[in-house]
Amino acid sequence: MGILKLLLSYLSIHPSPLRNPSTSLHLSQQAPAFLSSSESAKDTQETWLIYEQLLLSCLRTGDDNSARLCLQRLSDRFGVDSARVKALTGLYDEATSRSRGELEAVLQRYQDILKEDPTNMPIEKRRISLLLSLGRTEGAIKALTSLLSHSPNDAESWAHLSSLYFTQRLYPQSIFCLEEVLLILPNAYNIFARIGEVTYISASAGASNADQIEAFEEAIKYFARSVELSEWYLRGWYGLKLVTGKLIQAKPSDGTLGKMESLNQLATEKLVQIVSKFRRNVKGWTGFDEAEVLAAKDLIDRDEQKISR
Question: What residue stretches are annotated with the EMC2 TPR-like domain (predicted)?
Fold first, then answer.
């Protein structure tokens, strides 16, 4: 099997290599062999996909020489004026910058490109990422708001804007952005759970007791919807157990205590199953995030300790 097919096969197993350092390292180690092979000259969609993934992986692992070769061949094929190539060139310049001054120069180039073409989405997103790297969160929020004004169906950007508002403790704005995501992706179970999380956190940040209970009840609705859409979504069950536990402690007088206890017990049972099967490496149950599984185990243990007292 040639190296092109090997890389394509690897990417089919690891579709998001940049999220995993070991995957990025493996890909970047294949770059010199691929770049010197005859297969690298094939003009196919798959070949250029490999070039882009190798470029990103090499930048992440510090192989600037291989990254530069990948970028040069992409530029030769698609032209330096291609929106995507411009963004990749900017990313290369960011990764190889050695000072804040050099990063500021890259940012200025982005702004010059956007003056000529305000709707250049790849460059606009690179500019936002660079603003964040430079510590300019307010500027990134303003830029994302501008991007969404001419691209309102960009769910990824709404989610990104939500996370930025969250870091600034602007919880209502963060929730609004997540609700916009749901208008685009109505079955996004992770977004329902995230709204539940933000609602819970905002209520825990100094709200009155009555407002806090009302917010907890609202958060439960979102967590419940998330696990209704995805039965084994750990964060949904975790949030459901956590918040129902808070309401049980508050001893509500509106007749909902029994319902809260039932939901809490159901969430506990689901989390116990997830933790047990993950730790035993049961086939089909090993894809959970390990840190989230540990957090679920800790929540279960804390709950058991309270009962035993």
Answer: 99-189
